[in-house]
TrEMBL record:
Entry protein name: Homoserine kinase
CDD domains with a match to the protein in the record: HomoserineK_II
Superkingdom of origin: Bacteria
Keywords, alphabetical: Amino-acid biosynthesis, ATP-binding, Kinase, Nucleotide-binding, Threonine biosynthesis, Transferase
Organism annotation: Hyphomicrobium nitrativorans NL23
């Protein structure tokens, strides 16, 4: 479940009226997602998603996220469009939370992605990166190298409660990334969390992207490395080279990587694996065992990291040397 905050019928009907969305017909809390409270809302004007922002979203960042969604829609990227209320504002308040209403996106997320889905995701990610070029706002990545160090400090030796030796692995990896992390790659808007549950498909056709609440400005190829970690490993954590090739080929069909990006890709893949390992480890240690929202498994990202540590060339990810 992820309905942390309840709304009352009266408050919601009032809100819908403020947004000029006709009459409230029905609504229900959405079980999926772990960060925010989401409701699906049916009104006489259509279906919408109401999001109440919870603990991890800094409300100061919301104008960036909302502005980005509006910008991407304008550029033809399929993603939720924030609805403006009668005062022309996107953000509102309900049940003591900052909230927004966005358009509903048709489609479902794919539990078992196939190669064809990976190709489509790669292409959509490149489309997003190209569309993001003209977005004027900037948000630095709070979960970059410095942020990883901060999380590691909070974890400390407790990481070993998740798996023996985990603290050592993390410290080793951070020391490596401090030396090897590329600093001059092309940057722009990145999604930063393009996991299967954030990409909707109708059949094999990608219908849109959601959940831009980690979006920021950072190295474009790092975003591709995040997607590779999320889409190209099987449930037993085995790397699927065919899916990786499909992902990077889909991406490069619109935005070919530079030679420097290809060369740096194995390091980016390690950083991306460590980023999700760290946030998952922190959640793992801080989530009550009886909590309704189960934390994601950090070990799946330990295994991905160990895989990337053994990689010797970008070719293993399907990235041939530049012609
Ligand atoms: N615009 C939308 N159109 C259709 N469904 C949506 C939309 N936005 C959210 N949802 C639904 O709500 C669910 C949770 O949304 P989202 O992933 O944004 O939540 P979250 O709490 O930020 O979750 P997390 O960051 O853990 O993925 C989605 O899986 C989807 O079912
Ligand atoms: N995609 C993240 C969850 C936060 O959105 C993870 O799988 O760890």
């Amino acid at each position: 479940m992820a309905v942390y905050t309840e709304v009352t019928d009266d408050d919601l009907a009032h809100l819908i009226a403020e947004y000029g969305l006709g009459e409230l017909m029905s609504y229900k809390g959405i079980a999926e997602g772990v960060e925010n409270t989401n409701y699906m809302v049916h009104t006489s004007k259509g279906t919408f998603i109401l999001t109440l922002y919870e603990r991890r979203v800094n409300t100061a960042d919301l104008p960036y996220f909302m502005g980005l969604l509006e910008h991407l829609n304008k550029e033809g990227v399929s993603c939720p469009l924030p609805v403006r209320n009668r005062n022309g504002e996107v953000l509102t308040e309900i049940s003591g939370r900052t909230a927004a209403i966005v358009t509903f996106l048709e489609g479902v997320w794919v539990r078992r992605p196939k190669t064809v889905h990976c190709h489509a995701v790669g292409r959509a990610l490149a489309e997003l990166h190209l569309a993001g070029k003209s977005f004027p706002m900037c948000r630095s990545n709070a979960l970059g190298l410095a942020g990883w160090h901060d999380i590691n400090e909070r974890l400390g030796a407790k990481a070993d409660e998740i798996a023996p030796g985990l603290a050592t692995l993390i410290n080793y990896e951070l020391a490596y990334l401090d030396r090897a992390w590329p600093k001059t790659l092309p940057t722009g808007v990145i999604h930063a969390d393009l996991f299967p549950d954030n990409v909707f498909f109708i059949g094999e056709k990608l219908s849109g992207l959601i959940d831009f609440y980690f979006a920021c400005n950072d190295a474009s190829a790092y975003d591709l490395a995040i997607a590779l970690n999320a889409w190209c490993f099987e449930t037993d954590c085995a790397f699927n080279a065919t899916k990786a090739r499909a992902l990077v080929t889909g991406y490069q069909s619109l935005r070919p990587l530079t030679a420097a990006e290809r060369l740096a890709f194995p390091v980016l893949a390690r950083g991306a694996a460590l980023r999700f390992l760290l946030t998952r480890a922190l959640d793992w240690l801080h989530t009550d065992r009886n909590a309704l929202v189960k934390p994601h498994d950090p070990i799946a990202y330990v295994r991905r990291l160990r895989f990337h540590q053994e990689v010797t060339s970008p070719g293993e990810y399907g990235l041939e040397p530049a012609a």
